[in-house]
Specification:
By secondary structure, this protein is α+β, with helices and mostly antiparallel strands. The longest helix has 32 residues, at 8-39. 20% of the residues are buried. Strand 2 and strand 3 form a beta hairpin. It has helices at residues 8-39, 45-56, 220-228, and strands at 60-73, 76-79, 82-85, 88-92, 97-103, 110-113, 141-146, 155-163, 172-176, 184-188, 192-197, 237-243, 256-257, 276-285, 291-300. The protein is elongated.
Length: 301
């Protein structure tokens, strides 16, 4: 007859091994997994979205380049035995845009004239044939004429138009003072829309953008945090940027804070704080339509 073996010692050993494995698993969970879970509980994505929507987007604008193709432009025509000067006027028809640049800025054949004295050059200088805006203050109109004995057919001028307050595209209208296509004929080319952000309005006293008009008396950071970005009270941020300083199209290595000229700056980052950073590559667009690269860094802790 076979005797039953005593396995009590084996059962105790299995229990001890199982308990040891369980303790090691729990310890691993507490030491390695749980801290990383706690660290990632804060999701900075909504704050990054707020920065993009409420800081970068209000700085955006579009500067437009509009080519004017002159097919025919005579100096004058004979009407009923009288000589009539031919003038081609280019005007902005809305109140929210201004001419900022004419390219080329000088032409030996074309001349600009004043609104009141058509025969007189506007702001005469050494460049007698320089192309100039009729109204140097408002820059909303330009009156073109062809110099005597000059060949003005086939000329192309490029106008740059920048907005003052609006983000809509400009309305530009050319018009001849005579209805004779043998003396004056033209057409507008395809507009080139240059999109980007205004160059450093956040460093200008009071701001150049509507979103920054209230940032005076050193309250830039606190107002930006509470009114624009809608940040929670227990979170802080900084906005750094790197820009093209030399005009060579290359972003420099120096990072600057947009709050550097304000006496109200972000608080110091606490020791051992988790700092979340997102990079935004953009372009400055000047009122002349020139582009310069810039990189923004939005830091949240």
């Amino acid at each position: 007859m076979l005797k039953r073996l005593n396995k009590k010692g084996v059962t105790h050993a299995d229990w001890a091994i199982s308990m040891g494995i369980f303790i090691i698993y729990v310890s691993f969970l507490i030491v390695f997994i749980l801290p990383s879970l706690l660290k990632t509980q804060f999701d900075p994505s909504p704050l990054f979205s707020s920065f993009e929507e409420n800081f970068l987007k209000p700085l955006e604008w579009s500067v437009v380049k509009i080519p004017l193709n002159i097919i025919k432009l005579e100096n004058s025509v004979d009407v009923g035995g009288n000589s009539l000067n031919v003038r081609l006027t280019v005007s902005i028809t809305d109140d929210d845009h201004r001419f900022t640049k004419i390219d080329p800025s000088v032409d030996i054949d074309l001349t600009t004239y004043s609104d009141t004295i058509p025969e007189q050059n506007l702001n005469p200088s050494d460049e007698l044939n320089g192309l100039r805006f009729t109204d140097e203050n408002n820059k909303i109109k330009m009156i073109l004429g062809c110099n005597s004995n000059s060949e003005c057919d086939g000329k192309i001028l490029n106008y740059t138009v920048a907005p003052t307050t609006t983000k809509k595209l400009p309305k530009v209208k050319p018009n001849c003072n005579i209805l004779d296509e043998e003396a004056c004929k033209f057409f507008l080319g395809i507009e080139e829309e240059i999109k980007g952000i205004k160059e450093k309005p956040f460093l200008t006293e009071g701001g150049e953008s509507a979103s920054f008009e209230s940032y005076k008396n050193g309250q830039f950071y606190s107002l930006l945090k509470t009114e624009n970005l809608k940040f929670p009270e227990n979170k802080d941020f900084d906005i750094l940027y790197q820009e093209d300083i030399n005009g060579d199209g290359i972003v420099g290595d120096v990072k600057k804070s947009i709050f550097e000229k304000s006496n109200k700056k972000p608080p110091t980052v606490p020791e051992n704080a988790n700092v979340f950073i997102k990079e935004y590559k953009k372009f400055y667009v000047s009122h002349l339509g020139d582009l310069k690269p810039v990189i923004f860094y939005f830091e949240v802790w």
